[in-house]
């Protein structure tokens, strides 16, 4: 019994090491004095300073934030309405439709990227922020849709009926009762969507157009000239943002479960 | 009391292929406390939802104060509901829950606050304004739900098994409290339950429902003492049902042949000699005796003592099972013993009268 426990701990330790060691190395070497990532010669913040001075990089960062915010807002509205609407209809093909609306998560990104490229060219859309937002919104919707759908299952239908019974119009009941109850799910879904959008390379590369760079795309482009400590620093910053966003999302999710238990 | 508030006309409703309501009709007077009594799944909640506007009937009409409201939305009717599971808004505190209806009617904030606090006093929950529903006990939730509905002074309050989840003691207390509220406010109550004691204790009139139909409508006294069908007699009075043929119909008593013997029952204007009928005799009105000359022959099968009552299960000669109960433990009878069952004629009520054409 005891031995078994030890083995499983070793396995877990190995797994965590494999997963997180590369990340730790990147973070550690972002503080390295030396330009070579062969040995750690001393602590320095100079690569972060270089990063801060880089105009292109700042522009890419701003682009990424705008893109993330816009696509997460748009997908929050569309995904929520979709989930709420889907919960109300009683088609026979409902299960099929729900499955279809989550498919973008399962399609390989490279295929999605190509599909967007072909589609937007056919429409003659100029590649740039608009196409980026459209593409990102599309692949973000399923995350919000699934989160909100899961939350809706736990909400008693008679709550909204009670509001109607007390004199609320259907629209009023939706905003007074349903929205506050699914808000934590919308929030955690949106944050997840933001994180997904913020670190996407594959789809963005297909639709970003010739001049516009997002942060991950920029990192990818710079890699062609070799790994510099500057990139390590940049990765560390991106990592920090993602961890923060996912942390908030997890907290919001936790709150969802708590209020569910309270009912 | 005689002014009609609500009228149901031949309401029919089916979900898919199952007919849930098969043409029900009823009129309710202003100020009345009327109870729907019926087994689970007989369509009580569906009827209530049609009156509230949460469901549309396939056929028939709902008239509120003479106005056809069948196809009006719930928010367009002066009717409020206390739901089977309370349906308190979990993200609002007690004050916001109770004040919700007034807020929608754009009543000024100050007035809402005052009326909510008055209403909470009425249901004996003053001081609970800031509590969340998850911090309330079942009985308190239930009172919040009632306060939330009553504060809008509806013409008709619909209550769907509001005491279903409470324990017996709290149930009794709440029954009294509800009745007190209803008298005080003079609001018409339409109450659902499947507990016959509750129905008898609280109602002015009882509607016994069975499989989407109204089996009998009457005062508690009529329903309990003069059931029209064996279903009502069994469901409301836990009566034994004995089938037989009327041999002689007199002014006050009738003679009925059953189990090869003649027994007496109270007369009914609708009964003639030759009719097939059933006799409903409540358990506590049957006498069992070991050395009597009169009464139906039976064999004592089982005795058990529950809730202060002695229950005896007996088999008639035909094998039909009869349950008799009475207070006290003393019964100098043993299992397998041959006994006779008898009753006073006025305690045997003819039901399910069938006449051969
Ligand atoms: N939305 C629905 N879809 C399909 N069938 C339904 C629906 N609502 C109710 N039914 C059916 O209608 C019948 C009556 O239901 P209803 O809820 O009115 O019963 P009830 O008398 O209130 O029972 P209970 O005492 O258990 O609450 C049941 O057989 C139920 O399965
Ligand atoms: Mg019900």
Distance, first to last CA of chain B = 41 Å
Q: What average pLDDT do the residues of chain B reach?
A: 89
Distinct small-molecule ligands in the complex:
adenosine-5'-triphosphate, magnesium ion
What is the fold-level CATH name, i.e. the topology of chain A? MetI-like fold
Biggest β-sheet strands, sense, barrel of chain A: none
**Stretches with pLDDT under 50, minimum 5 residues of chain A:** none
**Radius of gyration of chain A using CA atoms only:** 23 Å
CATH architecture of chain A: Orthogonal Bundle
Shape of chain A: globular
**CATH homologous superfamily classification of chain A:** MetI-like
Number of domains of chain A: 1
Description:
The complex is a heterodimer of chains A (263) and B (357). Chain A starts with a helix and ends with a helix. By secondary structure, chain A is an all-alpha fold. Chain B contains 8 helices and 20 strands. In chain B, the strands form 4 sheets. Chain B has a 6-stranded mixed β-sheet with strand order 6-7-8-3-9-10, with helices on both faces. In chain B, strands 13-12-11-14-20 form a 5-stranded antiparallel β-sheet. Chain B folds into 2 domains: 227 residues, P-loop containing nucleotide triphosphate hydrolases (Rossmann fold, 3-Layer(aba) Sandwich), CATH 3.40.50.300; 117 residues, Beta Barrel (OB fold (Dihydrolipoamide Acetyltransferase, E2P)), CATH 2.40.50. Chains A and B meet through helix 7 and helix 8 of A and strand 6 and helix 2 of B. Magnesium ion binds next to helix 1 of chain B.
The gist of it:
Chain A contains 11 helices and no strands. Chain A is an all-alpha fold.
Secondary-structure topology with pairs:
The complex is a heterodimer of chains A (263) and B (357).
Chain A: H1 2-29, H2 46-53, H3 55-88, H4 94-101, H5 109-122, H6 129-153, H7 157-165, H8 170-198, H9 202-207, H10 215-223, H11 229-262
Helix pairs in contact in A: 1-11, 2-11, 3-6, 3-8, 6-8, 7-8, 8-11, 10-11
Chain B: E1 4-15, E2 18-29, E3 33-38, H1 44-52, E4 59-64, E5 67-68, E6 79-82, H2 94-104, H3 109-122, H4 138-150, E7 156-160, H5 168-185, E8 188-193, H6 196-202, E9 205-210, E10 213-218, H7 220-225, H8 230-237, E11 239-249, E12 253-258, E13 261-266, E14 276-282, E15 287-289, E16 296-306, E17 309-316, E18 321-327, E19 338-342, E20 348-354
Parallel strand pairs in B: 3-8, 3-9, 6-7, 7-8
Antiparallel strand pairs in B: 1-2, 1-4, 4-5, 9-10, 11-12, 11-14, 12-13, 14-20, 15-19, 16-17, 16-19, 17-18
The complex binds adenosine-5'-triphosphate and magnesium ion (MG).
Magnesium ion is lined by residues 44-45, 84, 160 of chain B.
